[in-house]
Amino acid sequence: MKKSTLKREGEKWVEEEIITKEQLEQLLSKYPDRDLNVILLIFAVLLTGIGFLTFIFSDWAQQPHFSRILIVILMMVVLYGVGEYFYRKSSEMLGVSFITLGYIVFGAGSFLGLHIYEVQVLSPWPFIIWSLVGLALYFIYEHSLLFIVSILVLTVGQIYGSTSFSMFCWILLLILLFGFGHFVYHHRTALYSFAFGISYLIQMTILTVVQEWSFYWIIVLFFLPYLLSELLRDQDLRAPLRYSSILGIFIYNIYQVIVLQDGFFLELDLEISFLIVWIVLFLIAIFFKNKAREKYSYVDLILFLPVVYILETSVLTLILLFTFSLTWLFIGYKLESNEKIIFGTVSFLLSTFTAYIQYAWDTMNKSLFFLIGGALLFILSALLERQRRTIISQGGKR
């Protein structure tokens, strides 16, 4: 719970004499104020990093002269040195910020050197080295900023390999699974788990496209982190993996409705191997849910149904999206869970907008389309928010 929310609710509890004012102050003391300086430092790293990248790839830096490389190396060493000093002597966050900048300069300088000396690059191997260095820096300093920047570099490397060389780099995937995955499991931080899940989903999408697999194999690949979350008990590991998997498959279903029309599915070759793998995974998911007695989460499995095997795929996918959204809304109201209500509300709004795009885009004036669509979402959002507040306030009174 956020400190502001706790303070607001706590003042009501004091008025209702549920707790004393002193007890409220003790509770609030357990929630330290957020350090706004951290946000400023993060933006400083982003802007300065962009500045370094722009400078390194400018026309001046592209001139084939060793002095350019020397300047970059000197810049990197200074940033690492300053970062190490602040990290050990003064501010940990400030020190990590300079170290992260040094890490960015290292990667950009590597590409500059390859370009100046005309080294032919036929694979994303520079990103492999860049990612491993980031992993090593995180091992030394164990700071979330280094983890996020490093996993971002790795993901961009996979995208670079697919767009530039039409290849999927298995080494980058292994670094994600066994390198970053090691720290995700042992440090058990929600931010790390979510970043890991998103990177995995992006790489699996790239794998499907580059290897020219049938697009519905994404269902299986996105299902795997969801199954992994069923095996984990720690919520900081389990929830982010589960939600990232649901987010990925939800976007996949939206894509299936808007982009892939029913005529596409009529010409699609359906592989029996996919169906066998999907059935096995689906049964495993049901087994774990039944073992854990999680009756409400069965609704998640709706999104993983392979509707490509059924005619009228777009319509059926929309029905599944609305069923998923409305079921979670109902569960949220029944359990008086603010988190589940918000989850159901957002998914319902996205489902509504998807249906609206699918059936109104070709038949309505585009200006009118966006005006009506925006108004519709405002009205739905207001109604759902009003109902959510009513449920939560009634729960607080009881």
Structural topology:
Blueprint: H1 3-15, H2 21-29, H3 36-56, H4 66-89, H5 92-116, H6 125-141, H7 144-165, H8 170-187, H9 190-210, H10 217-231, H11 235-258, H12 262-266, H13 272-292, H14 313-335, H15 338-360, H16 366-397
Helix pairs in contact: 1-2, 3-5, 4-5, 5-6, 6-7, 6-8, 7-8, 7-9, 8-9, 9-10, 9-11, 10-11, 10-13, 11-14, 11-15, 14-15, 15-16
- Give the rounded overall mean pLDDT: 81
The beta-strand count equals 0
Strand content: under 5%
The number of distinct helices, counting runs of at least 4 residues, comes to 16
**Low-confidence blocks of residues:** none
Mind describing the biggest β-sheet?
Answer: none
Explain what the structure shows.
- With 398 residues, the chain is mainly alpha-helical.
- The protein has a domain at 1-30.
- The chain has 16 helices and no strands.
- It is globular.
- It starts with a helix and ends with a helix.
